[in-house]
Design a protein that fits this description.
Layout: H1 16-27, H2 29-42, H3 44-48, E1 56-59, H4 66-73, E2 79-80, H5 93-102, E3 111-112, E4 120-121, H6 131-137, H7 157-174, E5 178-182, H8 190-196, E6 201-206, H9 209-229, H10 232-240, H11 257-268, H12 272-293, H13 295-300, E7 301-305, H14 306-311, H15 313-324, H16 332-341
Helix pairs in contact: 1-10, 5-7, 9-12, 11-12, 15-16
């Protein structure tokens, strides 16, 4: 959505310190999950005073515009969201953030993110992190041969307690009343989340499929080259539960395994645009069907067109604020700033 750069530069190599941090996370994951329970017990009294109130989830397929939507909303004074720095230790949100806030770290310097799409980030930028927790408790979440749909009848008490505590601890660490997350994979968990958190708000971002496939293929090719250039990125992507692009690419199974097999077969045979078209229809068809038959999801969901966010950013942001019940008065400066910056992407051309 920004006037973004071309991606012709050499693919990025992962910084050694970052790689070691993510490797440590992977090797000690079971222990830190258990430490997360200890952290919750120590904070139990404070957590009872701060229940999870109307969490906000930005979701939809990658490259639809979920990242920039997260970036905009994350600047609201009432929300707390995960940041890049949380990727190294997602299971101890309170202790980890309080520790980092006290360390004499150098001032963060903005840099292009791995996607090379013109969005600059620092360690304090908002990012999708919670998928790590979902992966731990639902290890088959990214298996194309299994439905990834978690509906209102799903019961996973251990996860539900852990996840609710996790959100509460992040809110305590940031001293904010509302939780905000970008979580593309939650697109098949809306009914489950609506049951866990009555009052949750879903912002589902949709992009015209012809433009979406061009951006998707461009990103997939870039991340694939990056993985080939520095294979350590592959282990890192697996560690944080991001499987949208590159060598760890997986399609989301929205409940129709035969369709996913057809999508995979078309993709593997080189008919990538056709495969993506089927995939786009599968995911957003699932959302529309759910909205039509589930009143709780229907009331919680607003569909936001990528094209509207580009062409009418002010009005679209106001509509999101109204749906999510975030105070618009305190957000006027941020809204006006993004109204000037957002626009149709012009950093690549479709080559289909």
């Amino acid at each position: 959505m920004y006037l973004e750069r071309d991606d012709s530069a050499e693919p990025a190599r992962i910084p050694q310190g970052l790689y070691l941090a993510w490797q440590a996370k992977r090797h000690f994951e079971a222990a830190t999950v258990r430490l997360g329970d200890v952290e919750s017990r120590l904070l139990r009294r404070r957590l009872r005073t701060r229940p999870v109130d109307r969490p906000i989830y930005v979701t939809g397929l990658a490259r639809a515009g979920t990242t920039i939507t997260l970036e905009v909303l994350s600047q609201h004074r009432d929300v707390a969201t995960h940041r890049y720095r949380d990727m190294a230790q997602p299971y101890l949100p309170y202790v980890w953030n309080r520790l980092l806030d006290r360390l004499p770290l150098p001032a963060p310097q903005p840099a292009d993110r791995l996607h090379k799409d013109g969005i600059k980030v620092t360690r304090d930028s908002p990012e999708a992190v919670e998928e790590t927790i979902w992966n731990w408790f639902f290890p088959q979440a990214h298996d194309e041969a299994r439905s990834a749909v978690l509906d209102a009848g799903t019961s996973a008490r251990r996860f539900e307690r852990y996840y609710t505590d996790h959100i509460g601890k992040l809110l305590l660490a940031r001293d904010r009343p509302r939780y905000l997350a970008k979580a593309n994979y939650n697109v098949t968990r809306l009914a489950y989340l609506a049951r866990l958190f009555p009052g949750a708000r879903f912002v589902v971002v949709v992009r015209d499929p012809a433009a979406h496939v061009a951006s998707w293929l461009k990103q997939h090719d870039l991340i694939s080259r990056t993985h080939a250039h520095d294979p350590r990125w592959v282990a890192t992507s697996r560690s944080v539960g991001h499987h949208e692009f590159g060598q760890q690419h997986r399609f989301i199974n929205a409940g129709d395994t035969e369709r996913v097999r057809a999508i995979r077969a078309a993709w593997d045979s080189g008919r990538r645009a056709y495969a993506f078209g089927m995939y786009w229809a599968s995911i957003y068809g699932h959302v529309l069907d759910l909205v039509a038959r589930d009143p709780a999801v229907r009331d919680a969901t607003v569909l936001v067109r990528h094209e509207d966010l580009c062409a009418q950013p002010r009005q679209t942001i106001e509509r999101i604020l109204q749906h999510t019940e975030l105070d618009p008065a305190s957000f006027s400066d941020v809204r006006d700033r993004y109204a000037q910056r957002l626009g149709k992407p012009r950093y690549y051309r479709a080559t289909l």
